[in-house]
Amino acid sequence: MQDMSSRYILNEYNWGSAFDNYTDFIASDAMPCDVGSWRINKYFVMVIYSLVFLLSLLGNSLVILVILYNRISRSVTDIYLLNLAIADLLFALSLPIWAASKIKGWLYGTALCKIVSLLKEVNFYSGILLLACISVDRYLAIVHATRSLTQKRHWVKFVCLGIWGLSLLLSMPIILSREAFKSEDYGFVCYEDLGKKTEIWRLVLRILPQVFGFVLPLLVMLFCYGFTLRTLFEARMGQKHRAMKVIFAVVLIFLLCWLPYNLVLVADTLMRTHIIEETCERREEIDQAISVTEVLGFLHSCLNPIIYAFIGQKFRYSFLKILAAHGVVSKEFLSRHQISSSSFASSSVSAAV
C-alpha cells in the first residue's frame, strides 16, 4: 500500500478508494485536486503498527490464558471478554503485513489482501457485538435480577458463535470486493473493486454494515447501560457500581478508538454519493481524517489488556494465582493480594441484585 497520508489514500478501511476517485474524475472530465502538503509519516505509522502488534500479542495472549485458567469461577462476562481477546489477537497477527505495506506497497497478492482485510472487519464487528452482549448481560443481572438466565454458559457459547457468524456476514463485502494489483499511478495496492456502479454499491456496502454492525449495537449499549446505571444509583449499590468500572472503561475505549473513524466514514459516504457537496477542500479534509482515525482504530487492539491490568483487581489476582501455581511468586505474596471473588473481570458482578 502507498503512504496512508497520501491524498488518494488506498487504505484497508476506506471503501471509497483512491482509484475510484481518480476514475470518477476522468469520467466526469473534471480535473483532480492537488495533493495536500500534510501527511502522516509512513515510517511513524509502521512503528506504531509494530508496537501495537507486540503489545496486543502479549496482552491478549495473557488475557486468554487467565480466563481459560479460571475455569471454575469463569462468568458469562468473562466468556465474552475471552472472545473479545481472541478477536483482537487475530487482528494483531495481520499488523506486521499492514506495517510492511506502508513502506513497500502491497506485495502479497489478492488472496492475502482479502484475508487480512477480513480480519480487520471481523475484529471491529465482533468487538462491538460482544460489548453489546455484555451490556445486555449486565442489564438482565442488575436491572431485572435474572441471575439464572445470565449464568447459563451453554447459551453463551451459542451467542458467541452467532456473533462470529454475523461478523463474517457483515464482512462479506470485503471478501467479494478486495483486489490486489499494480496501478500505474499508485504502485502495488490492495483496495475494493466495486465495478461500474460504484456509487450505488458504495452506498449499499457502507450503510448496511454500519447500521447492523455499529449503530444498532451502540443503541443497545446506550439503552442497557443507561438503565443499569440508573438502577445502581437509585439502589445506592456502591460496590456493584465500582465492579462495573472495567466494562465501562472497555466500552469507552472502544468508542474513543472507533467512533471517530465511523463518523468520518459517514461523512465520506455522504460526500461520495453527492448527498453533501463534494469539493477539493472537503475531500482533502476527509482523507486526512481517515488517515488519523484509522491509526486510532488500529491502536484499540492492544488497549483492553492494559485496562484489565490497571483497573481490574480480579484480573491481577487471577494472574498472580497462575504465577503462584508455577512457583514464580510465593503463596504468602498471593494471600496478601487476595480479594473476595476470583472472577476474571471485576465487571462481572456475578451476584445479581
Automatic annotation (TrEMBL):
GO molecular function, one term: C-X-C chemokine receptor activity
Record key words, sorted: Cell membrane, Chemotaxis, Disulfide bond, G-protein coupled receptor, Glycoprotein, Membrane, Phosphoprotein, Receptor, Transducer, Transmembrane, Transmembrane helix
Sequence intervals crossing the membrane: 43-68, 80-99, 124-143, 155-176, 211-233, 245-264, 289-311
Residues in the signal sequence: none
G-protein coupled receptors family 1 profile domain sequence ranges: 59-308
Main location: membrane
SUPFAM superfamilies found in the cross-reference section: Family A G protein-coupled receptor-like
CDD domains recorded: 7tmA_CXCR1_2
PROSITE patterns reported in the protein's UniProt record: G_PROTEIN_RECEP_F1_1, G_PROTEIN_RECEP_F1_2
Swiss-Prot/TrEMBL GO biological process terms: calcium-mediated signaling; immune response; neutrophil chemotaxis; positive regulation of cytosolic calcium ion concentration
Cellular component aspect of the GO annotation: external side of plasma membrane
Subcellular location as annotated: Cell membrane
Membrane topology, from the record: Multi-pass membrane protein
Family statement drawn from the similarity comment of this UniProt entry: Belongs to the G-protein coupled receptor 1 family.
PANTHER family: C-X-C CHEMOKINE RECEPTOR TYPE 2 (PTHR10489:SF689), CELL ADHESION MOLECULE (PTHR10489)
Known role: Receptor for interleukin-8 which is a powerful neutrophil chemotactic factor. Binding of IL-8 to the receptor causes activation of neutrophils. This response is mediated via a G-protein that activates a phosphatidylinositol-calcium second messenger system. Binds to IL-8 with high affinity. Also binds with high affinity to CXCL3, GRO/MGSA and NAP-2.
Assembly, per entry: Interacts with IL8. Interacts with GNAI2.
Name assigned to this protein: C-X-C chemokine receptor type 2
